[in-house]
Amino acid sequence: MADEIKFQKRVDNGEYIEAKDEMPEEYRRHLIRQISQHAHSEVIGMQPEGNWITRAPSLRAKQILLAKIQDEGGHGLYLYSATETLGISRDELIKQLHSGKAKYSNIFNYPALNWADIGAIGWLVDGAAIVNQVSLQRTSYGPYARAMVRICKEESFHQRQGYEIMAKMMSGTKEQKEMAQDAMNRWWWPALMMFGPHDTNSPHSSNAVKWKIKRETNDELRQKFIDKTIPQAELIGLKVPDNNVKWNAKTNHYEIGEINWDEFHKVINGHGPCNKQRMNHHKKYHEEGIWVREAAEAYSKKKLERESLIQA
Ligand code: BYC
């Protein structure tokens, strides 16, 4: 108990907690859950965009998309490494993903049907991710906070890449404008769900806020995203697919209609449009990649042996 009071004091003083520091077991477990789910999201998030590399409409668009997807893979690696500092192996984390014990973001269970979806993903999905992640740069666990600093730099380029695609399509033909609006209609609500349930229905929030893992709540971050994104949509002529949107001059915030939480729960519990496809794909390539992991391990073992022979 005395240790927990000491720990809470460190958190309250704004100190970073480092890998070898004393920490309550619940804090450690909470971080493993959140950071590993974040890592899984980055890696599974490569799938809907990966389908569009060969079909990008120009060489420039293809190069940018390739770089973006590669960034997401890198984010997954930083985050798996941060999780491993808490004393769990990457193998175990992948097992938890494959068994369904560990979740990944709801958003990646929707299909990317055409090029406008690549714009909507970059603008809305990376846009929502960055709002959440900016606040995680000050999260109380040092390795997670530092990973987030690097991730945020890359994520802001991703958001602009998506907005550029949407802006270009909205200055194009009637068909292009319709495609952009259709993508907006399909991605808007799932993007709002990325911030998680309302604060009153979020079982992990009170500990997360107490331990400063979360610096802002689900609803506060969602509101930030809404306030930032609606004017961006209006600027390029896109309509937010919600008849209840209105500006509240008293609060200085937009108000929106109710989110479909049944859909959210269905999707995060494995019954979204692409859950099976995403998981089967991950399992297949994880399996087929065994020889790569074994070869890398054998090489590093040999390298270490050689180096220790030279030193001896
Ligand atoms: N999707 O008590 P709550 C990205 C689950 S961006 C699925 O509020 P918490 C990327 C939650 O896990 C996306 N599940 O939980 C972007 C919990 O279930 P469990 C990744 C969700 O953790 C572009 C239950 O609902 N970003 O990677 O306090 C390109 C109750 O929720 C979701 C992050 O992960 C959801 N949207 O708050 C490529 C950011 N929301 O675990 C990649 C870091 C909630 O008890 N994570 N659930 O089975 C966070 O900030 C928080 O974990 C969340 C949820 C705000 C997501």
Write a compact overview of the structure shown:
69% of the residues lie in helices and 2% in strands. With 312 residues, it is mainly α.
Word description of this protein:
The protein is mainly alpha-helical and about 300 residues long. The chain has one domain: Ferritin, core subunit, four-helix bundle (Ferritin), CATH 1.20.1260.10. Helices cover about 70% and strands about 0% of the residues. It has 13 helices and 2 strands, in the order ααααααααααββααα. A two-stranded antiparallel sheet has the order 1-2. A hairpin with a 4-residue loop joins β1 and β2. The mean pLDDT is about 95.
CATH superfamily: Ferritin, core subunit, four-helix bundle
CATH class: Mainly Alpha
CATH topology group: Ferritin
- Uncertain parts: none
- Overall CATH architecture: Up-down Bundle
Strand order of the largest sheet: 1-2
Structural class by SSE content: mainly alpha
Proportion of strand residues: under 5%
What gyration radius follows from the Cα positions, in whole Å?
21 Å
The geometry reads as globular
Give helix % range.
55-70%
User: What is the subunit arrangement here?
Assistant: single chain
Number of strands: 2
Largest sheet entry: 2 strands, antiparallel
Q: Spell out which ligands are present.
A: benzoyl coenzyme A
Order of helices and strands: HHHHHHHHHHEEHHH
Number of domains: 1
**Tally of contiguous helical segments:** 13
